[in-house]
Amino acid sequence: MVRRPVAWIVALVLCVEALGVGAVNWFLGVVVDRQHMSLAGLDPHLMSVSSKAGGIVLGLHFALCGLVALLVALRDRAPAGPGRALLISAAVVHALLGALGWGLVGPHAFLYMVVVLGLVVLLLMTHDHPDAPVAPVSAAPVPAGPAPRGADGAPVTPPAAPTAP
After folding, report:
1. Positive or negative: CA dihedral 142, 146, 149, 154
2. How far apart are the first and last CA of the chain?
3. CA 55 to CA 63: how far, in whole Å?
4. Residue 19 — pLDDT band, cuts 50, 70, 90?
5. pLDDT digits over 133-164, tens only?
6. Contact present, 51 and 27 (Cβ < 8 Å)
7. How far, in Å, CA of 95 to CA of 103, rounded?
8. Once rounded to an integer, what is the mean pLDDT over residues 105-118?
């Protein structure tokens, strides 16, 4: 009941975030390349290329996680296997970025990351069909037909199962 709307929101947020992360890292790579900036003697071209590559990889990761969330929204089934692992990795990345965001950017970035982390975790933790009736589980099979009767006509009850101390 809650999974489908949350999955739609997560899919939208992660796809927008994928574009944003890719664009920001690409822009930073262009700025470093044009300004010939260097950090502790590193090659500016290498820094530019690694910033662009990191943006592409992280953007593709978030886009793939958004695709998994979209599939969850369309199928209304919990993510499983590699899709679940991707969403867990997205949650971990958002937790780490939230922790870094507080110190580097401020509380607004932290709050955004925590909200996205909460949505991803909520998507991972929702259960299948909570309104479906649950069948009782019995330890012993129930025999079909009438209950066995003793010599006096009273129903026979089986002996109690032994318990471990």
Report:
1. positive
2. 43
3. 12
4. very high
5. 555 555 555 556 666 677 777 777 776 777 87
6. no
7. 13
8. 93
Q: Which segment of 15-24, 27-36, 110-119 scores lowest on mean pLDDT?
A: 27-36
Distance in angstroms (rounded) separating the CA atoms of residues 138 and 77: 28
Measured in whole angstroms, how far is the alpha carbon of residue 4 from the centre of its chain? 14
Give the span between the Cα atoms of 98 and 107, in whole angstroms: 9
Give the pTM: 0.72
Residue with tokens 């489908």: 4
CA–CA dist 61, 78 (Å, integer) = 19
* CB-based contact 68:9 (threshold 8 Å): no
Nearest to residue 54, comparing CAs of 82, 93, 84, 86?
A: 93
